[in-house]
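Marked as duplicate of an earlier ticket. Keeping the data here for the record.
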Amino acid sequence: AEYMGECTRKLDDGTTVEYGPNCEILTRTFDRGGYAWFPPLEPCGVSVGGRSSYVSFEFATMDTDALLMYSGPIHDPSVATESQDPLSRQPRDFLAFELLQGELVGYVNYGGYTTVVRIPRSTSNKLNDGKWHHVDIKFEQRSADVQDVNQGGNNNQNGDGSTESRIQLFAELTVDHCSDYALSSDEFTADLRNVDFCRKTERIVGVFKSRLSVLGPTMLGGRSMPTWFDYQGLTQDGFTGCIRRLKVDGNYIDLATPAAELNSFIGCKNTEQFCLLPSAPPVLKCVYGVCEASFNQFIRCVCHPGYYGETCDKATTPYFFGDNSFISYRSSITGRNMFQTRMTTRFRTLSKSSVIFRFITEQNELMAFDIDGNGWPGIRFDLGDFEHSARLTG
């Protein structure tokens, strides 16, 4: 292999490996019966109205039923004895994801009961289509009104049918950022609550703490031995496909060196073959960008800021702006994703206060990127309710 700058590793077959911001290896391939062990997932604790905890990753497969990930006990904690391996004397907490009939199912256990979160999909929209799919699970505490029926669980002692405010923990599972929820320009007023096909929220029951305490290894792509999830009803099928960009609370997990592995490799050969031009030696199809491909075909190049074109081989033209100068463009948008908007730019300036760009729709929705009077960049946006803002402050 040949190593180049900016944490880019070029393999002998011409493919490149995607790296994270700290040079983490982000992608692995798994063949049937394969697996890879990594350290336990350690999401941060959560608090009401404050900190939430996130785990996210992406996968691509043609398998209808498969175990994608399991992080938790190896042995059943309920039958642990002092003579057993120390790993058997650990919390019951675990987190797991699997595909069942092409649908994503998440399992969460905070030391009590197992909560199952399943996102239904239509027959023509299953997740075992060979395309990359993004998975997010968010843990957060909410204050909810609970009716007292005096039947055990979270009820008060009066049993009078009254309600009271309780702190409860919820798991919210989302697929593909709900990006399939794309509307035409005359459908902006659609009901955004109808997202059951891409987002599902369930209350985690039997919770007496705010943090997932996982001490067992994180198994990706399959399992190497019988584990506690054998008692939980998860699929026993291995995984044939690729997993990438595993993150916990915004930090990438380095997939370079598993503690144990079988039939698992760096990169994703099933998709990377479509990212090469037929030449000797092979040449990357996306020159200055990221190649997106499925198990069946090339999809597109996502260009790095400063480049454009079908293969991201053309550099954008820089412009110099003096005082009170601007360029105005009119953009015709035929479709709209209600959950995700991506815009990129590169700039340099000595001005401590300026507008980099401002985008206004025909419905007077606003998105702007600017620099405040102290030199800090930030965004402002108004989607029809009121103006929101977010700004870097060093």
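See parent ticket for discussion. The helical segments are 269-272.
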